[in-house]
User: Fold these one by one.
Assistant:
Number 1:
Amino acid sequence: MSQVPNINKENLPLHIAIIMDGNGRWAKEKGKLRIFGHQNGVKAVRDTVESAAEIGIKHLTLYAFSTENWNRPKFEVNALMELLVSTINKETKTLMENNIRLNAIGDLEQLPSSCLRELKEAIDKTKDNTRMTLHLALSYSSKWEITQAVKKIAEEVKEGKLDLATINDSTLDQYLTTAGIPDPELLIRTSGEHRISNFLLWQIAYSEFYFTDKLWPDFRKEDLYDAIIDYQSRERRFGKTSEQVKA
Ligand code: IPE
Ligand code: IPE
Ligand code: MG
C-alpha cells in the first residue's frame, strides 16, 4: 500500500542523495550478466525521479558512476556509457514533461565525447525547469572534487583574488561542483553495503543515513517513501542537546 499520506510535507528533505548500488548482484542472482542489472536499474531511476518530484523534493542527486568505476572491465564501462547516452536521450522528454532540470557533477571531461554531448544537450534543454533538479554524479569522487577546490582556492590566493584570512567553510562550498546546491539532509544507499564510497564527503557532514538491503533495480517509490518516513522520525541535533532542540 502506498505510504505517501504518512509523509509529513512540512518536514521534507530539500535534498536527497542516493548511492544506487547492487545492479551486478541483482543480475547475478538471475544468472545474467552484470549489464542486465544496469539496464534494469534504469526503471528504478525513473520511478525514483518521478516520485521524488511528486513528493516535492527540490534536489535529487544520484551517484551513477564513480571515478573508481573507471577501473571496472572495459566491457562493463563501455556498456554503462552507452546505457547512459541512450537513457539521457530517451528520458529528456519525460524530464521536460515533469518540469525537472538536469545537472551533472563530477570530472565530466573524462566521459566519452558522445556521452558528454548528449549530457550537455539535455542539461541545456531542461535548464529552465523548476520543479526539481536531478543531479547526476558521473565520473564523480569526493576526494577529486575537494582536491580541485583546494587547488582553485590556492591559485586565487596566489593571484591575490582571494584573501587567505577570509577563507571559511562556506568558501569551500563555493568551489565544489555542488556550489549553490543545499547539502543533502538524507543519504540513501541500497544493496546492504554500509559505506560512502567517495561520495559527497564534505556535503554529508550532517546528513541522515538510510541503508536498505534492496538491490537498486528493485528500488521503487515505496522504498523512497520508507526512507523519508524514517528520516522524519530522526531528531537532528547538530551538536546541541535534545532539550535544546525541543525548546
Ligand atoms: C551500482 O551497481 C552501479 C554502479 C556502480 C555503476 P554495481 O554495479 O556496483 O552492482 P554490485 O554492487 O556489483 O552488485
Ligand atoms: C558506488 O558503488 C558508486 C556508485 C553507486 C556509482 P560501487 O559499487 O562502485 O562501490 P564500492 O566499490 O562497492 O564501494
Ligand atoms: Mg556496487
Number 2:
Amino acid sequence: MISCYKNPNKLWCLEEEGYRPEKTKHYEGLLTQGSQGLHLRASYEEGLAAAPQDESYMRLPANVTVEKPRHPRSKAGCYIPGVTGIHPLLNEVVVNLPNPLTIRLWAEGEPVDMDSPQMGDYARHLDMRDGVLYRSFSWKTDKGLVSWGISRYVSRAVPGLIVQRLEVSADYEANIRLEAAVDTKVTTNGYNHFTDREEFRVAGCFGAAVDTDNGDHVEMVSVLSPNAGEPETWEGVLTPGKTMEVWRLTLAASSRDEKAPCREEMCQKLNSLIVNPSALYAPHAAAWDALWEKGRVEIQGDEEAQRAVNMALYHLLRSANPRDSRVAVCAKGYAGEAYFGHFFWDTEMYLLPYFLYTNPETARALVGFRLNTLEGARKNAAHYGYPGARYPWESSLTGEEQCPNWQYCDHEVHVTADVAFGIWHTYTATRDLEFLKKAMPVLAETARYWLARCHFDADGSVHINGVMGPDEYICFCDDNAYTNTLVKKALGYTLESCRLTGSELLSQQEQEKIRACMEGLTVFRDSRGILQQCRDFDRYEEPDFETLWPDRSRPFGGTVSQERNYRTKALKQADVLMLPYLFPDSMGQEELEKTYAYYYPYTTHDSSLSYIIHAILKARMGHGDEALTLFRKSLGIDLDGGAAEGIHIANCGGIWQGVVLGFCGMGCSYQQEKLTFAPHLPAHWRKVSFPVVWQGQEHFVEITHEGVVIDGEKQK
Ligand code: BGC
C-alpha cells in the first residue's frame, strides 16, 4: 500500500486535522471506504471505551431538519447494500452489520484508546486514489514509546475482501497484544436487527455470522497473520527499532450473493491469500485507477475545488454498483444510518447524470433498479387506490413505500415522473432502443397512474392537486409547477417511446387521454409573469427570517415550528428553479434572472440538494462570483463537518453537475443531439478537463478561457 502518507498529494488526500473528539463521527462518515457491495465507516479498529456500539434506543420517524438525532461519540458502520432489517417505526432499513474491523490493542497490558492522554502524534488520511485509509499515532507507556501505523482498504478486485495491515515498533522491549474480532454487539439506529448471532472458529480462521430480521444471512470470516495459538490474537515482545507487521484479511458474504456463503470455503480462500497479502494491493489499485480514468474531472487553478470534487467523485465511485441493479445508492451513500438506506428521487435527478456521461453501465444499473421495482410501484398505486405504478418517495428493495412520514409519502408524488424522466435521459444518452423497450412497462404503468391521479376539469384544464413539490416546506399544494411540468414531460416521453419502440402497451384510447392530459396541464404565473411554485403561492405568508431565524448556522426548519414554516413562503430547496436547471431552453435569460431573484431570498437551503442548483443557474447566467460562492457552499456540505450521519451523496452528484453542466455549460442529451459546451469558467480556473461518454462514444473535453477542445479539436 503506497497511500498518501508516503506520497502526499493534498488534492487526493482527505486528511484529519489532528485528534478532535467532537469530530469523530464526522470523520467516520467522511472517510468511509467501500467497494460496491461492502462499505465501512472509518471507526478505529480498537474502538473507543467511551462509545459502546450496542446502545439501544428508539429512533423515531421525524423530519430530518427538525430531528435532533442522538449523537454517540462514535458510530462504527458496516453495510452491505441490500442486507436489510425491519424496524417497527422506520420500516425496511439497511442494517449495520457486525464490525469486521475490530482489533483491540494492548501495550504493557493496558488497552490503547485514542481518548487517553497516552496517545500522541495522531494522523489519519484517506487516499482517494486507491481508497486506502492510514492512521498513525504514538503511545506512551511507563517504559517508553510505542509507534503504531494501521492501514486498511476494501478490495475493489476481490469482492467482499477487507485488508488490514498493522505496523508496530517501540524504543524499548515493549509487550504488545492484539486481539481481533468480528464484533456482533452492534445496533442500527439503536435497534437490534439480529435474530441470531454466532461467533466461530474454522480451520485457522475466526468469524461471526448473523441473521437479520428481514431474512438475510451474513458470514464474516477473518485470518490474522502472524497469530499466536489462538487464531484471533498475536502477542509478543518487540525488538527496539524493529517494526513488527501484522496482517488481517476478512471476507464478508451474504445470502444475497449468487452462491450461499460457506465459511469453510471463505477460510480456505483467506488462507491462500494471506500467504502474500501485499500482492492484493496491485489489482485493487488498478481497479480504482480504471474508475478514475473514466470518471475524473481535472480543474487547474483551484486546488480547493479540485480536492472537494475528488471527494465527491470518490464517494460516487465507491457507492454505486454496476453489477447489482437490485439496489440503488441510498441517500447517505452507505456511509451512515440517516434516511435508513432508502432510495429517493436523488437517484434520477442527482446521481444519474454523472454515471450516464462517464460510466453508462453503472447508470443502467441505477435505472435498472427502477425497472426491477415496478411490481412494488404497482402495489403503491393500488394501496392509494390508483391503477398503474406509483414510485415511492422512499423506496425499499422491492419498490414499496418506506417513508414513515405521511407528508412526504402521500404527497411528494413527483418522484414517479422523475423515474420516467430518468428512463428518457438514459435512452437519449445511450440511444439504446433495447433498453427503452425494457423500460416500456414502467412508462406505460406510470402514465396510467397519472391519468387517474390528475384531475380533469370540465373546461379541459387538468390539475394535480394535493402535492408536495421538491420544496418540502410547502407541504400540501395544488398544481406545483415542478410536478406538473415533469408529469407533462414524462407523458410526452412515454408517447414518444411508444412510437420509437412500436410498443402497444398503451391503447390508442389511453394515448389519446395522455395527449388531452398534457394539453390541459397548466402552470401558473403571478401578475408579474413569474412562474408560481403552486397555484396560490402568492397567498402564502412572507417569512420573517430576521426575527425567526437569527442563527443562520442552524437550519431554518430546525428553528421554527413546522406549523409556522408550512404557512410561509420559506423554501427548503430549489423548486421552480429546478425547471430552468433541467430545461435551460424553457426560460430566457431575462425571465430566469427575474424568477431567480424572486425565489432566492425565500430559499433556506436546508436541504443539501439546494445550493448546487442555484450555483449551476448562476454559472449559466454568467454571474461567476456568485456561482462560485454557491458552488463552494455545496463543496463544503460534507467536507466541512456534515458527514456524521453519512455522505450527502445527491450533493456529490450535484458537484459533478456543477462543474460540467454549470461552469462548463454542457447540454444534456434529452435536449440536443450533439455534445456541446457553453462555458462560464470562474476567472481563476485555468482549465477544466474530463472524459465524457456521449451516445456510446468516449470523448475527452478540455475547456479553457480560450475555448472548448473536444478530442484535440478546437470547437467553433
Ligand atoms: C430533501 C429531499 C431529498 C432527501 C434525501 C431531503 O432533505 O428535501 O429532496 O430527496 O433529503 O436526500
